[in-house]
Amino acid sequence: MPPQKPLRYRDAGVNIDEAGRTVDFIKDAARRTFSRNVLTGIGSFGAMYELRNWKRPVLISSADGVGTKLKVAFITGRHDTVGSCLVNHCVNDIAVQGAVPLFFLDYFAVGKLDAGVAAQVVTGLARACEENGCSLIGGETAEMPGMYAPGEYDLAGFIVGAVERNELLTGAMIKPGDVLIGLPSNGLHTNGYSLARKLLFEIAAYKPKTFIPELDCTAADELLKVHRSYLKPIQKLAKAGLLLGAAHITGGGISDNTPRILPKGVAAEIKVGSWPVLPVFELLRRLGNIPEDDYRRTFNLGIGMILVAPEKKAVKARRLLDRMKEPHYEIGRAIRQPRGKKERVIYR
Are residues 13 and 124 in the same domain? Predict the structure, then answer.
């Protein structure tokens, strides 16, 4: 056989120079999120974070992805919101247990690396980390030819937070009569996108740039809205002793997420019509003739977080939210689990 022509890594589809440009951008973006607790810069084999001024800290961690919301980013070429969605989702998941976010790591995997796309994604990650007081201290950028379709990537994140042991939010003290306060979402957040994309782009045949009057924006603008962070209202109410538990309303909706914080023998009674269901959900329901149960378990329906306040302190909790200019709705109460019923969430 004739001598094989020399092959470089680039010939197999991996561009180390493009990876270097991406890492340089990540270093600059991440550095803006560092606190004095971060002991290493981006590029070390492991990121180091020093816990300071804690007495009995409990570390709380979570990992998540953005799901098929990424598909909307791919078809629009807009990649600056999905990173923020990922960070905020992870922040909410640990905030409901009382944790302060400490640091975040991301996993960005792509078939062929484009430093410009990666920069947009990382910009969103860093922006949300800054807004939540969380340090972006590391992660992984993986270029894997053949693993992903051209122009596509996957994005996941891992967060670590801490809370003093005596300040943990567990929901264990919730009892019948306690008040459920809903904080509004601004759209789908990061759940229900497989169904939403099918309904909007296949059934209704909308294009990403189609302006939808009832939404007052294009399909893409609606679907790429950033998943909200609820860290500040959770922290304020917890510090004031006005919070017994909190449920992040993600996949499974109110029906499946609320029971995760309820003690045995306690259920949640939800007052239908006590908050405005966002137009996007009404549109999706109409397009798909979605059954009620599936509708409630697929989408957040306009409530992104449920806070449970003690019955006698609920008015104080709502006044505090008013002072924060945080929109909210009293959407129900904790009740005794009805005999013979398996449902932990009952709609009235």
Answer: yes
Q: If we measure between CA atoms, which residue out of 34, 225, 18 comes closest to residue 118?
A: 18
- Cα–Cα distance for residue pair 48/39, rounded to 1 Å: 5
Cα distance between residue 329 and residue 348, in whole Å:
16
CA distance 234 to 321: 10
Distance, in Å, from the CA atom of 279 to the CA atom of 224, rounded to the nearest integer, reads 15
**Domain span at 122:** 9-167
> Is the pTM for the entire model greater than 0.85?
yes
Encode pLDDT of 279-323 as tens digits: 999 999 999 999 999 999 999 999 999 999 999 999 999 999 999
Angle, alpha carbons 280-286-292 (nearest 5°): 95
Residue 94 has phi, psi (to 5 degrees) of -95, -25
* Same domain flag for 187 and 255: yes
Residue 199 is part of a domain; what is its CATH number?
3.90.650.10
Q: According to the model, what pLDDT value does residue 104 have?
A: 97
> pLDDT at position 40, please?
83
